């Protein structure tokens, strides 16, 4: 049932790009530009926290990194075929025939956006909207199912929030600082 709903939603979104060249070109642009955009957002966040000597630098580094590693580990054990492989369709961008669940792009975008949100709520909302657009574009160009995006989104939210809760408790923060001072 879930797979059927996932495929149905995929076809609804993917078919929009098949019906409109303009929309298809925009989705390709968004999916291609999003990696660079989120790297720039992430570097700006880290640089700002570093310059301000803000202790949120530790969870801002740790949360997205842990989410990335978790996706990598999940994909070692579970290889869900991408839509262009499973449904014998043509994707609008080239992508290798690797596992698709969870989406690395969605996980990375949402992890960075969540890190921004936990530091600056208004900028974080903008970053979350851009991450959502990134996820939708990945479905619309034919390289991910909606469930791949949703899984990456939930995974990144849980891991980044967990990292912030863990690293921002006073006891853990002071322990880290004392270790850094000794070194």
TrEMBL record:
It comes from the Bacteria. The keyword Transmembrane helix applies. Residues 56-164 form the Phosphatidic acid phosphatase type 2/haloperoxidase domain. SUPFAM superfamilies: Acid phosphatase/Vanadium-dependent haloperoxidase (SSF48317). The keyword Membrane applies. The chain crosses the membrane at residues 26-50, 57-78, 98-118, 125-143, 149-167. Pfam families: PAP2. Keywords: Membrane, Transmembrane, Transmembrane helix. InterPro entries: PAP2/HPO, PAP2/HPO_sf. This is Phosphatase PAP2 family protein.
